[in-house]
Design a protein that fits this description.
This protein is mainly alpha-helical and 425 residues long. The strands form four sheets. A three-stranded antiparallel sheet has the order 1-2-3. It has a two-stranded antiparallel sheet with strand order 4-5. A hairpin with a 5-residue loop joins strand 2 and strand 3. Helix 1 packs antiparallel against helix 14, helix 2 packs antiparallel against helix 3 and helix 10 packs antiparallel against helix 12. The longest helix has 23 residues.
Length: 425
């Protein structure tokens, strides 16, 4: 019997966001002296371990603050919208003042005061286009909520610059360098999210570039669902550039969390276009990712899995990313689970298939028994855990405690559940 209660679930997620997640960041994460945000905390959130500022995270926090202000104005959360936008604005100004290089790219890392730092000495400042992508997203959302045309034009120009870099093959993608001889799902995935959000903002301004950005977002969606989508119903994380594919770790592994996150980007785009067939396909990919990625012994989603389930297998070439896959495949990370909370409920909402409601309930039970910090004086989540769910002090991707995935997905859940309760009223 379906006992699903969207109103009660909306209340639960709102309370968790406003009493567990947000207080941590408002108390510890805002640099009121020099601008930008602190995100380099230890896994438990007990200690600020560095005042360095990764532009990857700075752009993300701007997006969160702007969207949170929007939800506040709509009454979905009880926050001070104008204060949030003031904090977001100082982040926009910090990035605009310090992060951009002469070539138009964003530096990946700054110190507290805005001085550029090389993540690896001698490797340069602009080591990842992902930083540029998250700045674009942050500026886009800030511009949309504040109706700031100037910031919107900055976001558009940066997105166009990223597209030119991709076309020219000048792509650096730390902290996940793409192995030589492979194409990566992460590229069209992040670009789908960037272009679909920018297209939506441009459309709300009736901007002349809106049509072209929407065309681009559709093209990125098609690349994911026609090129990286495989006959087994999974999304390949890496594809060899030349056939035939070797039966290697790189070609066999899948990333359940990335797949699940990518599919809600696809479902959003397909819903905007009224493409119900693509919604159904994306939803089934979510279900398939659960079938190969869910840990049947300890629960939770594995960071990486073989396409047939379990530990990734296959030939090895000694690549840096390959070692990451093999060394951390069985860790349980916060971000795939927060993405799964939203993707499963979105799939249920768009398809009506109660399989996804069951998946949502499964991941909800695991998440709230596993990730929230038991020390309520600190709050937030203990984000990185071993296979059995025990906290581990280990750097994953960047040495940061990033608020993006948890906060974004809780807000998306609130918006989705609000629409459901409004429909049922």
């Amino acid at each position: 019997m379906n006992t699903y209660n969207p109103q009660a679930l909306q209340h639960f997620y709102q309370e968790h966001l406003e009493t567990v997640i947000l207080p941590f960041w408002f108390e510890r994460g805002i640099d009121t002296e020099h601008g930008g945000y602190f995100t380099c905390f230890d896994n438990r959130g007990a200690q600020l371990i560095s005042t360095d500022k990764y532009i990857w995270s700075q752009g993300r926090v701007i997006w969160l603050l702007a969207r949170l202000a929007d939800l506040s104005r709509r009454g979905l959360v009880q926050q001070d919208a104008e204060r949030l936008l003031t904090i977001a604005r100082q982040g926009v100004e910090f990035i605009s003042r310090y992060a951009f290089l002469e070539n138009g790219n964003c530096a990946f890392l700054l110190d507290r005061y805005g001085n550029k730092k090389e993540p690896v000495p001698g490797n340069g400042f602009d080591t990842s286009f992902f930083a540029d992508c998250f700045v674009t997203l942050g500026f886009t959302e800030y511009a949309r909520v504040t109706r700031n045309v100037e910031i919107l034009e900055q976001a558009l120009a940066l997105c166009q610059h990223i597209v030119r870099r991709i076309a020219a093959g000048l792509l650096r993608s730390d902290p996940y360098p793409i192995p030589t001889g492979f194409s990566a799902h992460s590229v069209p995935m992040i670009m789908l999210n960037v272009t679909q959000e920018l297209a939506g903002a441009l459309e709300s301004f009736q901007h002349p570039a809106a049509t072209e950005l929407r065309r681009m977002s559709v093209a990125y969606m098609q690349e994911i669902m026609q090129h990286f989508y495989q006959s087994n119903g999974l999304i390949a994380e890496m594809l060899p550039l030349q056939e035939p594919a070797t039966d290697s770790v790189l070609s066999r592994h899948v990333t359940p969390g990335h797949t699940i996150e990518s599919m809600w980007f696809v479902m959003h785009e397909a819903a905007t276009l009224g493409q119900h067939e693509w919604i159904q396909r994306a939803a089934q990919v979510v279900a398939k990712a659960f079938s190969v990625g869910w840990d049947q012994e300890y629960g939770g989603l594995l960071r990486y899995a073989d396409r047939d389930g379990g530990k990734p297998t296959g030939a090895t070439i000694g690549d840096v990313y390959e070692r990451l896959v093999l060394d951390t495949w069985d860790t349980k990370l916060w971000w795939p689970h927060s993405e799964a909370l939203y993707s499963t409920l979105l799939a249920y909402d768009l398809t009506g298939d109660e399989t996804f409601l069951s998946l949502h309930e499964r991941v909800h039970t695991y998440v709230f028994a596993t990730f929230p910090n038991p020390d309520q004086h600190i709050g937030e989540w203990v984000q990185i855990r071993d296979r059995q769910g025990k906290p581990i002090d280990k750097v994953v991707a960047l040495p940061v405690k990033d608020p993006y995935h948890i906060t974004r997905n809780l807000m998306l859940l609130l918006e989705l559940l609000h629409r459901q309760t409004s429909r049922n009223a």
